[in-house]
Amino acid sequence: MIGTRVILTGKEANQIEEVESGAVTSWDEVRETYDDPSRDPFTGYVVPILKRISCAELMARTGCRERHIKSIRNGYRNPSVHLKNALTEIAAAYARRFMPEPAADDLDACAALFKIGPQ
Questions:
Q1: E strand or H helix that includes residue 41
Q2: pTM, to two decimals
């Protein structure tokens, strides 16, 4: 197993009575996860991999123009949700080629590429 990302979690104190009484059977019922806006996973894990993939390949696979791809890779534009998901899948497929074991999801695959070292 490769540790890939930090996920902030907290136990919700407003449900402490339910936890202590045994009414809660799983911590997942009372645990919240929080996204740190300063650690955008797309910018931190996906974009660096997109820079390793040729612009021509990204254009062919997404239908976007070269200028749009370059703007996203250089941080000047934020992609739509649909395009962000497509680019994340493309980056994850690239990352999985170098992984010794499977990743839980696409973001974990991208993050793992940095844990196992540059290719």
A1: helix 41-41
A2: 0.70
